Amino acid sequence: MQFSMILLHLAGAVMLLLWAVRMVRTGVERAGGPALRDVLRRARGGWLQAVAAGTGLAVLLQSSTAVAVLAAGFAASGIVPVSVGLAILLGADLGSALVVQMLSFDLSWLVPVLILVGGALFLKFEARAVRQAGRILIGIAFVLLSLHMIGEATAPMRQSTLLPIMISYLRGDFFTAFAAAALFTWLIHSSVAAILLFVALAAQGVVPIDVGLSLVLGANLGGGFIAFWLTRGQQAVEAHRIPLGNLLFRATAALGVLFALQLGPFPAALFGATEGRQLVNLHLAFNLALVVVCLPFTGVMERLVARLVADAPATNASTADDMPASRASALDRSVTRTPSLALANATRELLRMGEVVELMLRPVMDLFDAGTPERIRRAQKLDDEVNRAHTDIKLYIAEVNRGAMTPAEARRGIDLTDFAISLERAGDIVAKNLLVLAQETAEKKLRFSRDGWNELVGLHDRVMANMQLALNVLVSSDLESARQLVVEKERMRKLERLSHDRHLRRLQSGRPESIETSDIHLEAVRALKEINSLLASVAYPLLSESGDLLESRLARGAPPQEKTVHVPV
């Protein structure tokens, strides 16, 4: 019974550790997503720059896997070459080891401070960046708390009669310990959490240093396999080659070191005074050596993985990478005499239409940065599906309107038709404005200034987030989300004005990049703002019905203006 309670406490502590690491990563991604991706874009300058970018991002995200997935996505877009992506991943693994190094110190005194400050930031402020900073601080506090819980849960295991038998077996079968650690790391999808767990066990005297070395090496192999597994579904071969090359680097090094350790006693005492500290330092030394040894061979590995993962057949070149899978329309005409069911079907089809618009909009910034004519044409071709869905939805709802409907159902039909028109217009802006501008940028080989590029990426990310919010409002009719969507519309208007003013100041300073891309920059900003406004239109019927939508306060005799929204913030 006692042993089962120990395992229960240990499992709870490990789950808290996994959740806390994910919480920190989510906060960093939401607070600085555009900046993080821009770091990877700038990493194309050389090996050392790529290693530094990977290291920094892994420290911020507390995950080398997250960096690997980002790098694979950029490789699929043609922005990052495979050899540079491999250098980024080598740096990311080093950054992950640095995270373990920092979290291994006794910082339990910080837990209440981090929870207090982080909770206040998250609960008392509305600004997105401040709230995410609070999320990050709370996540770090939970990481430290979980490590303390792991130490308490494993302390009684030292008196277990079963433990010496298990340790004796693992000492005699180092490869089983190595393989089990690799499998465990892959199962929990976090090398940071796995290494911290093994270090905590070693610090409690549960795991001796020789077994701990096999576990740490296995965790390094398992960490490389996570990214390879997560990117297996991507269609672009470049997205597979980078994680595969990194996995081959790590597998070769980990197995080589594992078998080398069996040749004689290892001077682990040189790496620290305690077994826990020794494992942490050895993990860092392994990843640092991996960077030094493997970095010159990234070009060789690029050629090797190109042989292992062949290019797609030429016949598939015309297929749209992001084209949604073909499926039957949700517009079932057998239920048009039952308005409630028919409108539900129209909502489903409208949601699918929104997802196609999202697929068109998502790669826009990548296409501005490294778009090819073929990729731009494939993205533009999705607009045909948007137009078809728009026509089908309008005609379907018109057919439903011919039957008997309640006033609420009639209003809902009008609202769905209006949003279909908005989405169709948004698709046109992407296809005929943004993608045309991306093609012009590629043909003329233009480059935005760093400040201008950061502004565009930030606006694009905000529109993508609001796209998700709009589709949520469409399906759930959630009033709070509708209010937030209209608040975001006002923020977008201010950001568009701010970007416009900053761009004019850059023109006055005579920056060549700003002068060359002036028209494109201004048109792209306007297009993103218009798309965001069209998305926000889904919130107005809901806010009008709830009483949050008020008429403008106008002086008598003033010309009529658009309605404004009073949103409690």
Shape assignment:
globular
The SS-based structural class is mainly alpha
How far is the first residue's CA from the last residue's CA?
A: 52 Å
Q: What's the multimeric state?
A: single chain
Q: Strand count, sense and closure of the main sheet?
A: 2 strands, antiparallel
Q: What fraction of the residues are assigned to beta strands by DSSP?
A: under 5%
Question: Can you give the mean pLDDT?
Answer: 82
**Distinct helical segment count:** 22
Question: Which sequence of SSEs, written as H and E, runs from N to C?
Answer: HHHHHHHHHHHHHHHHHHHHHHEE
Q: Can you tell me the residue ranges where pLDDT is under 50 for at least 5 consecutive residues?
A: 314-325, 552-558, 560-569
Radius of gyration: 27 Å
User: What is the count of β-strands?
Assistant: 2
Helix proportion: over 70%
For the largest beta sheet, what order do the strands appear in spatially? Answer: 1-2
List keywords for this structure.
disordered C terminus; Na/Pi cotransporter family protein; globular; 569 residues; mainly alpha; 22 helices; 76% helix
Describe the structure.
- The protein is an all-alpha fold.
- The chain has 22 helices and 2 strands.
- Helix 3 packs antiparallel against helix 4 and helix 3 packs antiparallel against helix 11.
- The chain has a two-stranded antiparallel ribbon.
- Keywords: Cell membrane, Membrane, Transmembrane, Transmembrane helix.
Question: Could you write a compact summary of the structure shown?
Answer:
The chain has 569 residues and is mainly alpha-helical.
